[in-house]
Inverse folding.
């Protein structure tokens, strides 16, 4: 199996390294990932600057890993599929992200955006994230869980362009209770800003790292993740509101 691995934390991120190690049990892994961290980059792409690309090797200096791209996660997938890979991958994996991408976070996430970009090109794509708890991440254990879930997704041979979002809960809270397939929570998160003034009297703000969902909604990914379950959510990138579309199409429209 040919696997394209990417992320938004950067090609040297420990989460990517751990997931790559596990994915090598499934097939040949080629990494095309940002040269620097691109967290919360969403689905932005680079238009006005060149995309510099460099080869990356293991610590031994001889084992080829893939390419580092000075661009966004979506840029990485585009370049991989259109320019860098000699053969198209069988699956695209994005992660493992340091921090969950549950609920509305999927709209901000560069990790999920990279997977979406792969699905654009009709490849099966899976985003994998590990929930954040302000402690040391156990990426090695989480990567094993992630690989197991990926194997089970692929075993059913999903249709071309299928897109999945996988979140792994904080492992320090206790044993994983299982896997739940649930919809995305769409409640807004509680966000805060730290207001400060620089030495020249200019006001500036730091975004707080605490993103809390006050309304996790029963039966959604946010609730199950907090309860200790790995969550799997099938996603789609068609944002059309088809119910409202039919209503609008039935109207008589006038201009002029």
């Amino acid at each position: 199996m040919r696997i394209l691995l990417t992320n938004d934390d950067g090609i040297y991120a420990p989460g990517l390294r751990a997931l790559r190690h596990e994915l090598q049990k499934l097939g040949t892994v080629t990494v095309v990932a940002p040269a620097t961290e691109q967290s919360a980059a969403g689905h932005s792409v680079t238009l006005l600057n060149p995309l510099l690309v460099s080869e990356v090797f293991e610590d031994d200096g001889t084992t080829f890993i893939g390419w580092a791209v000075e661009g966004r996660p979506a840029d990485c997938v585009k370049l991989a599929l259109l320019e860098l890979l000699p053969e198209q991958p069988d699956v695209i994996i994005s992660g493992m992200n340091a921090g969950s991408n549950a609920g509305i976070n999927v709209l901000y996430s560069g990790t999920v955006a990279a997977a979406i970009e792969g699905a654009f090109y009709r490849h099966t794509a899976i985003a994998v994230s590990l929930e954040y708890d302000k402690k040391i991440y156990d990426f090695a254990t989480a990567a094993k869980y992630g690989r197991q879930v990926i194997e089970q997704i692929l075993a059913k041979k999903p249709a071309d362009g299928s897109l999945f979002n996988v979140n792994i809960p904080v492992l320090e809270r206790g044993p994983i209770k299982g896997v739940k397939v649930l919809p995305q929570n769409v409640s807004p998160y509680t966000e805060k800003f730290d207001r400060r003034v620089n030495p020249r009297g200019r006001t500036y703000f730091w975004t707080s790292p605490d993103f809390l969902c006050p309304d996790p909604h029963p039966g959604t990914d946010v609730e199950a993740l907090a309860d200790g379950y790995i969550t799997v959510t099938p996603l789609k990138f068609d944002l059309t509101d088809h119910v409202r579309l039919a209503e609008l199409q039935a109207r008589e429209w006038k201009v002029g």
